[in-house]
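Field: sequence (string)
Field: structure_tokens (string)

Example rows 1 and 2, in order.
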Amino acid sequence: MTTETAQTAANATRRGTVELTLAMVLSGTLGIFVVESGASPFEVVFFRCLFGALALGAYCLARGYFTDHAFTPKKLALAALGGVFIVFNWVFLFEAYEESSISLATVVYHTQPFYVVLLGALLFKERLTAATFGWLGVAFAGLVLVSGVSPTDPGPLAGLGFALLAALFYAVSTVITKRVTGVKPHLVALVQVLVGIPLLLPFADFAAVSGLGAGWAWLVGLGLIHTCLMYVLMYSAYQKLATAKIAVLAFVYPAVAMVADRAVYGHHIGLVQALGVPLILLASLRINRARQPRTAACSATTQAPATTQGPATTPAPAPAAPSRR
């Protein structure tokens, strides 16, 4: 490798690091926007899809992505099906914010990679190693601690359940959208948010949101910042960084979310619950890094949520490291 080539690669890595770090910081503020909007989870997701589709559509049009889009009927159907799961993943996650706290919901939501591994073994007969089982056990122990469940105080079980359900739906979307290859991830994200508009229309109470006032600014922000800008930054970073680095930087998201939750709402995880946080995050990191070559570069077309494993992403609030098959 020449000096010039090495310098170019180093510059790309630095830029990708800045882009992904910024994207994860934005992810960490997602819960604040949801809560401050004052709308119910169904309305929040509906308008996130609406404003996000407008912003992503304009971006894709400006970049010329609609030309030679590479969609086939099968790929379009898979992207749309993944969108169904990613949209309801958002609904359940935002319900978890209401029933527990942003901090607790965010940490529990990071069980996504374990569902992806288990679904891969169940649906595609992927081999589970002894190490994987061990890390799943560590994650489960961390989940028990984080839940705060005890015989005398069941804790915020509803919030815990919604966060786990959100993680499951995100994992299902990941498994589906990983099959959409050769298509710009921005276009896949656009299809998925477009699916959310008619899907959630029957659940949206427009009378309830008509008097939101300043809440509309938060809803617009969710579409423009957390569904367009955030994913543009992530997809750009994914092309420049190795998967191992992406896996590490992904944990900026829960760190920022917990700091923001405490700073704005005074919520914090208790001492016993705090013991479970590093167990879940460490197990998630180890499983993510074990699922792809340590130095493999992330493909721009691999899909994680927003996203987002963590997929590379289907549009999800908290994407994990993208995986390669």
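Row 2 begins here:
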Amino acid sequence: MKKLLILVAAVAFAMTATAQTPTIKSDADEVIRYWDNTSAPHSNCDSKPEKVVVSKDKYKVSHTTETVFYIFKAENPTGHGLVVFPGGGYKNVNLNFGLGKWLAKHGITTMIVKYRLPNGHAEVPLEDAAAAVEYMRKNADRLGINPQKIGVSGSSAGGHLAAWSSVVLEGIQKPNFAVLYYPVISGHIWTNKPQWSTFEELLGKWRTPAEVNNHSVDLLVNGQTPPTLILHCDDDPLAPTINSTLYYKALKRHGVKASFHIFPSGGHSWKDYKKQWLDATKEWVLAQ
């Protein structure tokens, strides 16, 4: 009887563990588990188990300690590649593979990145972004990509990571262009909690003014920053449009090719003008 109870308890524990960490289903052509906290140059020092919350075809992942590339190969390759960093306020990685599938149908090979969250270690997500661009460039021939037509994209905190990587990365890791969706850009904007808490997750609660400056991407733009497309909604309640405005002004101040679209509604998303956003993205990427 005692053995039976132990068995029942073990089965119940296994079922609970499975329920807490559902499988991420992507339909990707390739899924590359690139590295984790033990094999990457730096660790985010998060000891909690990864948690996945599923909502239809979307996955909200927290406590990420493993970097995974989901690659959607273009059906009729144009030679363009796009590395996408999902948003989530640097507290979660909100995986949604719809954009990857759509871009692949239009000739753009796309990589969706489940990156390691910073947990106050800012170098970690940037390290993953660099690895993703480098991987795509090193595998350009196999993936049907022109190594000089690889861009980065991201939404919200993922937009910060895309902008940041486009500004500071160099050599084989530097993207050729960027597409930013309602990005968080500046750590000096205190309009609401989601805005400043993104920088708290990135740098920690006791971040210094110098650290904030060094990670506010509008202050880092230079003449080598690649061409950038920015899309934002005027009624965004989480990442105000001042983020994109500051970044666009910085780009133009340094003579960087840029295009900035502000839509009247849609909130912290692109739900009201989805077709326009998708078409703008496709046209911008294919023009690079």
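free_text_note (row 2): The longest helix spans residues 2-20.
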